[in-house]
């Protein structure tokens, strides 16, 4: 057996062990849970479409034989039911605003609702902008609308920060770049068109950089990032010359400065604080740059957070960041070990989805899956398109034996991170446990395109679940046939195929059993010897009693 095959085999054996552990974990006591929606989520479904209800058996495996559920307090039950209600809302901002706040929090007034406003859709979609540019005087009308939104940013609290959101339409896509350039050609003196084009370049550069530590970014990626940033920076300067109040431009320069140059960041930061000192994005940009992991210091971080606290009465959204100074030293990004009580404490200082995700992870390590669900739900509330946070909550839901709801979270996570093999693999496992084997198998080919090894491990998991019966139909047979075709060198896969085909009375059962018996065993493995002994029993049973199912 080749080294890669041995590695895959070890991974499959580890997976088999983890499956047994997970099955045992599912049998632990759990409070009466809010059931996930019973409707199957389609390709466009991002959220539950029915209200989860408390006190009903959860979806998935039967719960017979489990210890009696631990009671939830009325407040806990109401909290969970409220989450189930608001998860039915499709709009990110409306869902966020409908969420119950974290129990026993000390958040500043208006902080959570203000933070939710940052999830509002851009004032105009790329399609609407493109269509408007096709009309007579469309570019001038677009300039007028953006100018009005900028004015409202400074005068109307309900429209605070929405000018920043408006430029989110200009992402890294080719269409976004074409639309921005079209706007600039039609309105060559437009500050807003310049920021649109620069935002497109900057997003391409940030995508090239990725999320790895800067030292781990490859030379080609780094050069691509720098070339895109170099195109964006002068456009931002020009925009500020044309419209000095357009703080979006200097905030974007601050972001580029964090990647390229402390001097650039400092210059852009000073300009932003002179233009728009109460803006969430200006203040948060300063907080990020003040963190020790970005070259700042705890003293600088405390000063930046205190500045945010003093400005919060004028812009309540700033209450979302007042926990950052106390949160940094106890969070994983500081290198500190996770202490559950400390992470829960700092989560109650401000509605920070990131801090609450750390608390959720800590509770998960402690085995407290209900609190993991509570804190992970708050993280998802404020970051609904963060695949990691969705995965975190889905894991808690699985440990609470609610695979249907977990599948909905992971389907959204896959839409948000379609090239992440770990997220897709987790979705496949959860779909299988939720009784949606056909949907799970349909996801295996996209996973194989991302990571053949992960696809093999995940298919083994799926087939292993289907091999537990009690009925062995075409889905199980197809699964093990494809598993052996993908991993013919893995003995456990060949053995599983023989068992499933035998149970299904498939015409290929005899040949599958012979493949187990003929497997070379030069090392005299006790594991292989025992498997062959079982295969001989299967073969004898198949030959003497073809009508009845064999005894496992």
UniProtKB/TrEMBL annotation:
Gene3D superfamilies: Tetratricopeptide repeat domain. Residues 28-57 have a biased composition (Low complexity). The keyword Signal applies. It comes from the Bacteria. Transmembrane segments: none annotated. Coiled coil: none annotated. InterPro entries: TAT_signal (IPR006311), TPR-like_helical_dom_sf (IPR011990). Residues 28-74 are annotated as: Disordered. This is DUF4034 domain-containing protein. It comes from Lysobacter enzymogenes.
């Amino acid at each position: 057996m080749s080294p890669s095959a041995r590695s895959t085999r070890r991974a499959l054996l580890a997976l088999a062990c983890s499956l047994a552990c997970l099955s045992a974990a599912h049998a632990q006591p759990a409070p009466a849970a809010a059931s996930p929606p019973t409707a199957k989520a389609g390709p466009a479904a991002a959220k539950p479409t029915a209200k989860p209800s408390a006190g009903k058996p959860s979806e998935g495996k039967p719960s017979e034989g489990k210890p009696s559920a631990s009671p939830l307090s009325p407040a806990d039950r109401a909290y969970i039911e409220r989450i189930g209600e608001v998860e039915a809302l499709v709009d990110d901002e409306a869902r966020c605003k409908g969420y119950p706040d974290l129990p026993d929090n000390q958040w500043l007034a208006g902080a959570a609702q203000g933070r939710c406003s940052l999830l509002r859709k851009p004032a105009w979609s790329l399609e609407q902008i493109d269509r408007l540019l096709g009309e007579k005087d469309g570019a001038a009308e677009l300039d007028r609308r953006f100018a009005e939104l900028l004015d409202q940013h400074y005068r109307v609290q309900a429209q605070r920060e929405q000018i920043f959101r408006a430029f989110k339409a200009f992402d890294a896509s080719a269409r976004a770049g074409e639309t921005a350039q079209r706007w600039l050609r039609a309105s060559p003196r437009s500050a807003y068109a310049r920021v649109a084009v620069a935002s497109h370049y900057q997003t391409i550069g940030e995508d090239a950089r990725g999320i790895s530590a800067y030292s781990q970014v490859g030379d080609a990626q780094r050069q691509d990032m720098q070339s895109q940033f170099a195109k964006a920076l002068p456009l931002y300067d020009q925009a500020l010359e044309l419209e000095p109040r357009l703080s979006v431009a200097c905030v974007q320069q601050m972001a580029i400065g964090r990647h390229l140059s402390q001097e650039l960041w400092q210059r852009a930061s000073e300009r932003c604080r002179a233009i728009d000192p109460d803006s969430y994005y200006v203040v948060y940009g300063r907080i990020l740059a003040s963190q020790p992991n970005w070259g700042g210091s705890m003293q600088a971080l405390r000063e930046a957070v205190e500045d945010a606290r003093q400005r919060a009465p004028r812009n309540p959204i700033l209450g979302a960041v007042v926990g950052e100074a106390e949160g940094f030293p106890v969070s994983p990004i500081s290198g500190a070990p996770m202490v559950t009580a400390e992470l829960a404490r700092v989560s109650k200082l401000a509605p920070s989805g990131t801090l609450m995700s750390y608390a959720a992870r800590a509770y998960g390590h402690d085995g407290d899956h209900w609190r993991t669900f509570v804190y992970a739900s708050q993280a998802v509330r404020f970051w609904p398109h963060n695949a990691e946070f969705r995965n975190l909550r889905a894991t808690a839901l699985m440990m609470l034996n609610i695979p249907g709801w977990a599948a909905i979270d992971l389907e959204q996570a896959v839409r948000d991170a379609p090239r992440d093999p770990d997220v897709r693999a987790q979705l496949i496992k959860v779909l299988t446990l939720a009784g949606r084997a056909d949907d799970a198998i349909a996801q295996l080919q996209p996973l194989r395109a991302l990571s053949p090894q992960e696809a093999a491990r995940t298919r083994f998991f799926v087939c292993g679940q289907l091999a537990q019966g009690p009925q062995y139909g075409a889905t199980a047979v197809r699964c093990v046939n494809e598993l052996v075709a993908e991993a013919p060198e893995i003995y456990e896969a060949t053995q599983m195929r023989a068992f499933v085909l035998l149970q299904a009375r498939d015409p290929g059962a005899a040949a599958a059993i012979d493949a187990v018996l003929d497997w070379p065993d030069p090392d005299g493995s006790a594991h292989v010897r025992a498997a062959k002994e079982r295969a001989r029993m299967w073969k004898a049973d198949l030959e003497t009693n073809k009508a009845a199912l064999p005894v496992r």
